[in-house]
Amino acid sequence: MALLLRFVLLCGVADFTRSLSITTPDQMIEKAKGETAYLPCKFTLSPEDQGPLDIEWLLSPADNQKVDQVIILYSGDKIYDDYYQDLKGRVHFTSSDVKSGDASINVTNLRLSDIGTYQCKVKKAPGVGNKKIQLTVLVKPSGIRCYVDGSEEIGNDFKLKCEPKEGSLPLNYEWQKLSNSQKLPTSWLSEMNSPVISVKNASTEYSGTYSCTVTNRVGSDQCQLHLNVVPPSNRAGTIAGAIVGILLALVLIGLIVFCCRKKRREEKYEKEVHHDIREDVPPPKSRTSTARSYIGSNHSSLGSMSPSNMEGYSKTQYNQVPSEDFERTPQSPTLPPAKFKFKTDGITVV
């Protein structure tokens, strides 16, 4: 009898605690960055649940070092959504009347920092219920770049590359040829789902327009490239042109250096000449003009003198020539001394 009573009591307690139930199952949701995530949380009440209704959403960030954060709360018929700064203004109840049994929320403009486990708790005494939702934020492939790595010439080896700027892994690649035969060359088939296609011994039949599509679980993006395989260029002419260009550049550099050095020498010479000329020193007197004027004056004097007094005059006058005004030209030891001859009244004086 006691065992039966205990069983009845346990069943009553179980039924009593199960009066409030959340009908939404635990689940995982994947969304792209920038999109809106809908996190469902629907519940049912029973007549036994008579207490005030409280709804609380918690976030357990992917970083285990961070504690759980309350991101939105309904209590006392009011909504509080400014608990968590990172989600402020981006989290809202989807229903205008949560009492109707819908505690679902929207998280808008998703960021990578929004990744984590979200928990919905509903309490209406004596009933309590909770559910968890795992939210993963992925990045769509974007900024896809297609290009040729190498020289697009007949017989050459090069690569076709497809690189996304961003995108969450795993990424899937698919190459297609959009022109001519609309098919990829047979040798490329093994690489049509890889980011790089290796081209060996290229030929003109490889020319055309190609596309590369990159996809992941939340989106896709595409790029195109135009491949034009051409005959080899005239490398000898290219090399000769490069050599001529280098020689011309060297000649030009040499001329510039020569002109600069010449200009510097001229400037240096002008400075030295200007330094040697002193304005405070008067120019030297002309010795030739002094001597000529002195001799001319003596000649006029001699012309007025008679032969009788010429001898005495010639002995004394030439000894009075100032040394500072007239200097004789040095005579060579082997040459006779210079002699002056004057004629006056028909008489020659030596």
Automatic annotation (TrEMBL):
Q: Which UniProt keywords apply?
A: Cell adhesion, Cell junction, Cell membrane, Disulfide bond, Glycoprotein, Immunoglobulin domain, Lipoprotein, Membrane, Palmitate, Phosphoprotein, Receptor, Repeat, Signal, Tight junction, Transmembrane, Transmembrane helix
Point out the signal peptide segment: 1-19
Molecular function GO labels: cell adhesion molecule binding
Could you confirm whether the keyword Nucleotide-binding appears in this record?
no
- In what ranges is there compositional bias, type Basic and acidic residues? 269-282
Please state every residue range assigned to the domain named Ig-like.
33-136, 141-228
* GO CC aspect terms: adherens junction; basolateral plasma membrane; bicellular tight junction; intercalated disc
Q: Name one GO biological process term.
A: homotypic cell-cell adhesion
Q: Where is this region: Disordered?
A: 269-350
- Give the record's membrane topology: Single-pass type I membrane protein
Please state where this protein is localized: Basolateral cell membrane; Cell junction, Adherens junction; Cell junction, Tight junction
Q: Where is the composition biased (Polar residues)?
A: 286-322
Q: Does the keyword Cell membrane apply?
A: yes
Q: Where are the transmembrane segments?
A: 239-260
Q: What does this protein do?
A: Component of the epithelial apical junction complex that may function as a homophilic cell adhesion molecule and is essential for tight junction integrity. Also involved in transepithelial migration of leukocytes through adhesive interactions with JAML a transmembrane protein of the plasma membrane of leukocytes. The interaction between both receptors also mediates the activation of gamma-delta T-cells, a subpopulation of T-cells residing in epithelia and involved in tissue homeostasis and repair.
Tell me what this protein is called: CXADR Ig-like cell adhesion molecule
Q: From what organism does this protein derive?
A: Ailuropoda melanoleuca (Giant panda)
Gene name, Swiss-Prot/TrEMBL: CXADR
